[in-house]
Amino acid sequence: MPTLPLRASAHSLQVEPSAAVREVIARGTDLPILDVGPYLAGEPGALEQLGADIRMIQENLGFFAIVNHGIPQALIDESFRQTARLFEIPMEEKLKHRVGYHHQGYLPPKASILQSSAIMDKIALNTKKDTNSAWLFMRNRTADDPKVRANVRHRGLNQWPESLPEFREALHTYQLSMEKLALRLLPMYARALELPAGYFDEMFKAPEYYQRCAYYHPEEHMEEGQYALAPHSDGSFLTLLPMTPVPGLQVMTPSKEWLSVSYVKNALIVNTGQILNRLSNDRFIATPHRVVNPPTKRYALTFFFYPDDDANVGPIPECVGPGETPRYDSRTFYDFFVPYLDDLYHYNDKAFMQEVESPDARQANA
Questions:
Q1: Interacting residues of 346 by C-beta distance below 8 A, sequence separation 6+
Q2: What is the three-class DSSP state of 362?
Q3: Cα–Cα distance measured from residue 275 to residue 288, given in angstroms and rounded to the nearest whole number
Q4: What is the DSSP secondary structure assignment for residue 204, as one 8-state letter?
Q5: Could you give all domains of the chain from N- to C-terminal order, each with its CATH number?
Q6: Fewer CB within 10 Å, N or C, the chain?
Q7: Cα distances (Å, whole numbers) of residue 90 to 71, 132, 269
Q8: How far is residue 175's CA from residue 51's CA, in Å, rounded to a whole number?
């Protein structure tokens, strides 16, 4: 993808992408790997170099991996261990916490069809049930939270399993650590867009996030065109995902080939979602990706990071180049998020859908 012109700016990058990133992008067989340790340690020049590298990555592939990110591996390992236990609790207890109006809780295998109108021009519309199961958590709230009391959709109380308090403790610590890291990564994206390093601070005073703990179990017989997780693009500003040795994740390259992601020890995968795609006026791509049937049990701890509910996610004026027009409308993040989830998840259980859509069920699921 060619570099798009931006408005002339006093904040233009003065460095070029590194040779390693240029080589990986040109080869198209692996994800670029960025060492964010020097930046997090405050090393001079590190932020500018990451800005240049991320700019090239986000204009061409949209996915990369980071190392020396500061998240303790022991915390990640314990979160994976607790997540494996999460899917071993009795089905009776799981179904007590089945997802509803707020899309928070347990999602059984083959309970939904993942579709995305945002990528229909790149991939045929999916019509098959995803084989994975998942537990879905948003930002952890208390009963006296104003959004909980007002029954704001997708802002309800998380459904934590009663029989596994250790999971709740581990995952909440994991979420807070990921939130802290994501906030520290924001200046890299600002500089990649040739904006002041603190440009996004005002949008992330009370950031939202969506945690998807997924279990991809090997299927002996997959239908033609069926996936563990169907092709889609994330709705996040950015997504953080600890790597796992078990393969399955595939990323679509600009030539519409599927790149199988190789394991890098202690690394986190980072990718852009539709929020940054909108803010950048399509400059930074929200790359389609999928999970194919794994050879053995595979777990994922996907952390989707979002701005404040009232943040404007229309194109940033500085990202609308000469002669261009904004390709997206101005709206709040929350007004983007609700239709995004409704567009993406299509439940195939009619009785369940009636429960989700019923006004009476909305209060019951609060």
A1: 112, 113, 114, 115
A2: helix
A3: 14
A4: G
A5: 19-364 (2.60.120.330)
A6: N
A7: 31, 17, 31
A8: 25
The whole-angstrom distance between residue 330's C-alpha and the CA centroid of its chain comes to: 21
Q: Is the separation of the CB atoms in 131 and 293 below 8 Å?
A: yes
Q: Is the CB of residue 115 less than 8 Å from the CB of residue 99?
A: no
DSSP 207-225: --EEEEEEEE---SSPPTT
Closest CA to 366 of 151, 161, 208, 96: 151
CB atoms within 10 A of CB 41: 10
Structure tokens at 35: 């060492």
Single-letter amino acid code for the residue at 154: H
Please state, in angstroms and rounded to a whole number, the distance separating the CA atoms of residues 197 and 210: 25
Cα–Cα distance measured from residue 28 to residue 22, given in angstroms and rounded to the nearest whole number:
10
Q: In whole angstroms, give the CA distance from residue 357 to residue 359.
A: 6
Give the pLDDT of the chain (366 residues) as one tens digit per residue.
444 445 556 688 989 999 999 999 999 999 999 999 999 999 999 999 999 999 999 999 999 999 999 999 999 999 999 999 999 999 999 999 999 889 999 999 988 777 767 666 667 677 788 999 999 999 999 999 999 999 999 999 999 999 999 999 999 999 999 999 999 999 999 999 999 999 999 999 999 999 999 999 999 888 888 999 989 999 999 999 999 999 999 999 988 899 999 999 999 999 999 999 999 999 999 999 999 999 999 999 999 999 999 999 999 999 998 889 999 999 999 999 998 888 877 775 544 444 444 444 444 443
CA dihedral 349, 353, 356, 358 (to 10 degrees): -140
For residue 347, the SS3 value is strand
Which one, of 78, 18, 69, lies nearest residue 48 by Cα? 18
Tokens at 256, concatenated: 């519409």
Question: Distance (Å, rounded) from C-alpha 231 to C-alpha 27?
Answer: 23
Q: pTM, whole model, 2 decimals?
A: 0.92
105: left (phi over 0), alpha (psi -120 to 50) or beta: left
Residue matched to tokens 């998020």: 337
